[in-house]
Specification:
The structure is a single chain. The chain is built from 14 helices and ten strands. It is 35% helix and 19% strand. The two termini are 28 Å apart. Strands 1, 2, 3, 4, 5, 6, 7, 8, 9 and 10 form a ten-stranded mixed β-sheet that branches. Helix 1 links the parallel strand 1 and strand 2 (50-55). It is α/β, with parallel strands linked by helices. Helix 5 packs across helix 6 (186-195) and helix 6 packs parallel to helix 14.
Length: 347
């Protein structure tokens, strides 16, 4: 996710040069796209379409580029627009209607645009602050658990987050603070967060894999921030991809800082291969792909009855009471909130 989410797999790659070929279907996504090769191969065999994947930066960057190129799109299907950016895509006519086969099996709480079917829900996850367990143990500190905690003196200079103007998790974290403190209180909260030394970087990849001391990538990069805006599903990634695998996750989640995201896919307007795009959308909410999602993109499926890996149940369960926001309110206020946040935090 969501932005995307923990990018622990590799895409099939592709530059889309063959998108004019009716047997090639091109998926445009953010950099966290990942799927098992055998699952993609099974789709290609059953459908007769060859899948090309074009990864186009962080989710926010990818959506912005897709909007700018909508008249001459880079592919046929876009995956990775979430509820924080959905209205931008819909208002700009990014997608054409298509009701994917199996849509009736998508859990109702994740449905959107029900009347026009311009997007199909694919996955869900929670944007949350993660913490480096070893750091807090070594320093005799209790990890933060809430937004209020993050502005306390003991957590000064410990948090890194992403740019809300360009990053999906960065925007999700901003919206979480708006949901928590309201229209009249969120800016005062960010002033306190800034005074407490929050660091802002461009992307999730940079924040999590370079700045965060608790991730495997951050350790290699000698990251020195033990708090990072990431996902509730990031701890299981640290377990699953470790060799040897630890008995417990090296990172934890501040459960009082979570904001729920839902990611969607849609058939791009002016797609060169709309029939291939429709087949691909059907596949994305099919049982095989939905059950493949967690261990590749570290998100939860939206299809009713899809199985969840045991590591997710043990190390990365969804937040019980995440912040949420009406998509209509996000649509009406997002751009102004981001503008105000930018002038406040990036001045």
């Amino acid at each position: 996710m969501a932005g995307g989410l923990a990018a622990c797999g590799s895409s099939s790659g592709g530059d889309g040069e063959e998108s004019g070929d009716s047997r090639t279907v091109t998926l445009v996504s953010h950099d966290s796209w990942a799927a098992s090769e055998d699952v993609i191969a099974a789709f290609e065999k059953s459908s007769g379409y060859q899948v090309e994947v074009l990864e186009d930066g962080d989710a926010g960057q990818a959506v912005n580029k897709a909007v700018l190129t909508k008249d001459n799109p880079q592919g046929d299907v876009f995956f990775g627009v979430d509820n924080t950016l959905l209205s931008r895509a819909l208002d700009n006519g990014l997608f054409q209607p298509y009701e994917a086969k199996g849509s009736d099996l998508v859990l109702p709480e994740y449905q959107a645009d029900r009347d026009e079917h311009r997007v199909t829900p694919v996955d869900t996850g929670d944007v949350c602050v993660n913490y480096d367990k070893a750091y807090f143990s070594e320093h005799g500190l209790t990890p933060p658990d809430s937004f209020d905690d993050l502005v306390k003196p003991e957590y000064e200079d410990l948090l890194v987050t992403e740019n809300a103007a360009s990053s999906s998790p960065g925007l999700g974290f901003l919206l979480g603070t708006v949901a928590e403190y309201g229209d009249d209180g969120w800016q005062a909260y960010w002033k306190k967060l800034e005074a407490n030394g929050v660091k802002v970087v461009d992307s999730w990849e940079q924040a999590y894999n370079e700045e965060f001391s608790g991730s495997s990538g951050g350790k290699k990069a000698k990251g020195d921030r033990p708090l990072v805006v990431s996902y509730a599903s990031s701890p299981p990634a640290e377990v699953i991809y470790a060799d040897p695998q630890p008995a417990t996750a090296p990172t934890g989640v501040a459960t009082g800082t979570c904001f729920r995201q839902v990611e969607y896919a849609g058939l791009l307007s002016n797609a060169e291969n709309p029939e291939g795009g429709k087949a691909l959308l059907d596949f994305l909410i099919g049982e095989e792909f939905q059950e493949d999602l967690p261990l590749n993109m570290f998100v939860y499926p939206v299809r009713e009855g899809a199985r969840i890996p045991e590591a997710f149940r043990k190390f990365g369960p969804p937040a019980e009471n995440p912040e949420t926001m009406d998509p209509a309110k996000i649509a009406d206020n997002r751009d102004q909130w981001v503008k105000s946040w930018t002038s406040l935090v990036l001045k």
